[in-house]
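[step 3/7] fold_predict: job queued, chain A
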Amino acid sequence: MTTAFIRPFTGFIGKTYVITEFELRKLRHDFTELVTRALQPALWLLVFGQVFSHNGAMNTGNIPYLDFIAPGILAQSVLFVAIFFGINVIWERDLGIVQKFLASPTPRSALVLGKGFSAGARTLSQAAIVYCLSLLLGVRLDWSPFALLNVVCIVVLAAALFSTFSLVIACIVKTRERFMGVGQVLTMPLFFASNAIYPTAIMPGWLRTVALLNPLTYVVDALRTSMLAGSTSTFGLAFDYVVILLTTVLLVTIGARMYPRLAS
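[step 4/7] structure written:
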C-alpha cells in the first residue's frame, strides 16, 4: 500500500527534476542573461533607494528606507525574470519542442512545475546580487542560516509562482508579440500595487485592498521578515508561505490543463 503511494510520488519528483535540469542547461550557452539581469536591481537600490533614503520622504516606521526597499527590489527582480518566462514556451512551441514534451509520458503538472523551478534557480543569482549591493550600502541583513534558507525557499517559490502565471498567459495569447504586450501591462501593476517600495499603511483604501489580493505582497513580506535583522512580519511568515504555496499549486493546476492548448 505504501509502495503504491510512494512510487508515483517519487516518479513525479524525478520527472520534475529532469525538466528543471533540462531548462537550466540552457544557461551554459548564454550567461549574459544573468549579467544583464543584475542591472535592474542595482539601479533601483543605488538610485531610487538612495534618493528616498536621504530625503526621508517615505515613512517606514523604525526601518530605514534603504533597508525597507531591499527585499522589495529582490521581489521585483524575481517578478521581472519570471513573468517573461512564458515567452520561452512560445519559442519551444514554434520549434516543435512542446509537441515532443506532450508526446512523452511526463505528467503535464511535472512539465509546468519543472519549468517553474528552473525559473526559481535562475533568480537565485538575483538574490546574490541584491545581497551584495545591500551589504555594500549598509543594509542590516540577517545572516542566520534559518533566515538565508527562508530567503532561498521564498525566491524559488515566488519565481515558480510567477513563471507559471506567465506560462498560463502564454497558453492564452500564443504569440510572442501579444505576450510581450500583456507581460509589460501586468508587471507594473503587480509591482506598484504591493508593499515592495512603500508600506500598505500609507495606501488609499482601494489600493490596500488590491495589495492584499496581490501575491507579490506576501512574497515581499516574507522576504522582508527573513532578510532584515530585527524585522517583524505584517501578516505572519507562516501565512505568507500558505498564500504563496496555495497560489502556486492553483496556477500549476491551471497551467497543466492549459499547456496542451499551446500545441494546437
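[step 5/7] annotate
Residues 108-136 form the longest helix (29 residues).
The CA atoms of residues 147 and 191 lie 24 Å apart.
exit 0
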